[in-house]
Amino acid sequence: MSNIPETGRTPRVQIRLVVIQVLVFSLLFTLGGRLWYLQIRNGKEYTDEAKNNHVQQVVQPAVRGSILDARGVPLADNETRLVVSASRTELMKMKDDGKAVLTRLAGVLGMKPEDVVNKIRLCDSKTPKPCWNGSPYQPIPVTDEATTQQALQIRERAEDFPGITAEPAAVRRYPAPGKARTSQVLGYLSPVTDEEIEKAKDSDSPYLRSDQVGRSGLERTYDKQLRGKAGVTRYEVDNLGRVIGQAKSDPPEPGANVVTSIDARVQAVAEWELHNAMVEARKTYDKNTSENYKADAGAVVVMEAKTGRIVAMASQPDYDPNAWVGGISAKDYAALTGKESNLPLLNRAIQGQAAPGSIFKVVSTTAAVNAGYDFDGRYPCTSSYSIGNQVFKNFESQNHGPISLGRALEVSCDTVFYALSHQQWIKDGGMKPKKNPGDWFYKTAHQFGLGAETGIDLPNEVTGRVPDRKWKQNFWEANKDWWCKNGKKGGTYVQQLSYENCLEGNLMRAGDSVNYSIGQGDTLVTPIQMATIYAAISNGGTLWNPTVGKAVVSADGRKTTEIAPRSHGRLPFDAKTRDLIDEALAGVATRGTAAWRFGGWPQDKIPMHAKTGTAEVYGKQTTSWFATYTKDYAIVMTISQGGTGSGASGPAVRNIYDALYGLDDAGNQDLKRALLPQPQRTLPKIEADGSIDAPKIKPYDPEAGKIDPDKLTADATKPAPDATQPAKKPDDDPQELAGPPATHRGRL
User: Fold this and answer.
1) Over the range 413-442, which residues count as b (16 or more CB within 10 Å of their CB) and which as e?
2) Whose CA is closest to 410, among 191, 605, 591?
3) pTM for this structure?
4) Do residues 525 and 450 lie in contact, with contact meaning Cβ atoms separated by under 8 Å?
5) What are phi and psi of 242, to 5 degrees?
């Protein structure tokens, strides 16, 4: 008798069948669940995506808004150019993928066939530029510099150029009214990147692949307002990419216009005067280095004292922003960014940092008063000040005897400030500071807004540096290993300095304090910071956020959004101290270190206030600073390796004021020649059709205050011819510097 079941299956076989059945039913259940999820739970989402696979978008870029000066003169606008484009969709339908058409097109445009082909190829990670990173269904620009004759040939012989169009289109333009480039303030455009598209896709202002976006300056700050909204036409296509119908079309919305506080006429004057001051400095002999001044860079800021609005801002060397239009060439890009370029893309008004020299003394004066010293007290202005075996000399070793703080500002007496800061250093505990030292000189600098951004509406502003105890400690921790490795007792100057910093670089030494009190040592400021400070002294103490943008006006002129001035604090002095400092700075312009530059100035009608500064930089020639203000404006100029404050920058600043107020050398005012005797208050009118009745601007003539286009052809970025003889100054010039660069001496 057999023990096999009637079914013929053994228990083992039966178990295997059960397992297989469970697996099959599990797989069927999983598949059913997935089908339910795809078709029912998320069915609508995938249906919509499937539809989109058969709809392609063609983008019509919006016309970018203009950037206008305070009177409506375009600083950046658009011009109509003939743009030749190729439809990749049409070309791909041809047997040879359109190569014959593109070859004929290259012949008409005077281009190489391979260059035309490269223009319309699609970008990917392996494709070098030039290539197209936009939609393949959108007409791809081949050139935006076609002539009328070339465009007519293409349109009249349409049968020879299927898929090719020649149409007028708006292209960005920087017209430089009056030869005022305003380059670093305006910035430039370049195509949007994939990363930017991804980052902005869920924002209220997403990018399209065809967009040009601002990369610096106002073009970047106000990019969202200027860009507008591109038009999108949606085409239905089949699985081969052929267009079978139009689904929907949204017209483009032009960008808004940004009205600035820049006055193109004053900007032209500021650029020219900065340029000319640098050229003249290069002709001047520096007896400390036994060569002419290099004057390799500079900046000037003209600011409304009561609002912080920027009337002019220039930086040298500069560049032509039109170089970026249509894509910058490799040659031009190398010229702007190479080692020999001296960084023309840098806006030195907000990004250039340097020791301020004696224009910093308004901070030290306020600190001394806040620390308890009497403004009208008597303080010895000796020829030198000694700390141990170290001697800190006054300017030209002059001895003015006991003087007030006001007189110390007028004659720029270093030793008065040396002594006050040294006394405060001792009161704070010296090398072993108290638990909560007063640190008046450092605290006051922070209250003046130094060591922080001013809040200007331009990107990439730098903060400068206040070398207080916290900074000293952080800097020492970051550099002590290098100092200790490279320092050597009794070695070279750098080795000895490294040796000392290794041992006590985190401590506030007496020498640090006295150098800091006259704007030297590790202190760094920017021109925009100092312009903000001197404007605040003028207006009674309010630190305004500097602003270039004044209003955003819609393309049709119907909607205006004004950009109101904002304050970020007040200077830390009372009204009495402010008035005393104001009086002392007026004395600088009338009988102090700047008086020789303001001869004939109508002080009774337009009170002038000034402070000169000449800052020493290790391994370089001195930096020229000139800080000034009236009741209307503050003007600050600096020239790197340019020499003395009043010697290099003084004449240029005086000429800018003369142009603003319409003054001749004798101080006589002619309001017909005055460019801006009072700040501009009204906004320009933009018509419904977008037109602006803007005044014409011609180049500035420094000789006659009139117009002469030939006067602005020189390039300030090129060195001036080397002067074989030292430039001779007036016999009564108080600005000559004496002594080798390594000595501690006065800095005006």
Assistant:
1) bbbbbbbbbbebbeebebeeeeeebbbbbb
2) 591
3) 0.82
4) yes
5) -85, 135
Distance CA 228, CA 250 (A): 13
- State how far the Cα of 684 lies from the Cα of 676, in Å rounded to an integer: 15
Neighbours of 184 (CB within 10 A): 26
Residue 557 CB neighbour total at 10 angstroms? 17
Q: Does the pLDDT of residue 650 top 50, yes or no? A: yes
Q: Which of 301, 362, 322 is nearest to 634 (CA)?
A: 301
User: What tokens does 707 get?
Assistant: 């117009």
Tokens for 336, please give them. 């702007």
Please enumerate in sequence order all residues whose Cβ is within 8 A of that of 170, keeping only pairs 6 or more positions apart, or say none: 63, 64, 78, 79, 80
Condensed to tens digits (0 to 9), the pLDDT of residues 29-75 reads 888 777 776 677 666 666 665 555 566 666 677 899 999 999 999 99
468/237 Cα distance (integer angstroms): 67
Tokens at 143, concatenated: 């050139």
* Distance in angstroms (rounded) separating the CA atoms of residues 100 and 212: 31
Here the tokens at position 671 are 């309001």
Mean pLDDT of 444-464: 98
Q: Positive or negative, the Cα torsion across 150, 152, 157, 162?
A: positive
Nearest-angstrom CA–CA distance, 598 and 661: 14
What's the per-residue H, E or C state across 484-540?
HHHCCCCCCHHHHHHHHHHHHCCCCCHHHHHHHHCCCCCCEECHHHHHHHHHHHHHC
Q: Which residue has the higher pLDDT, 248 or 429?
A: 429
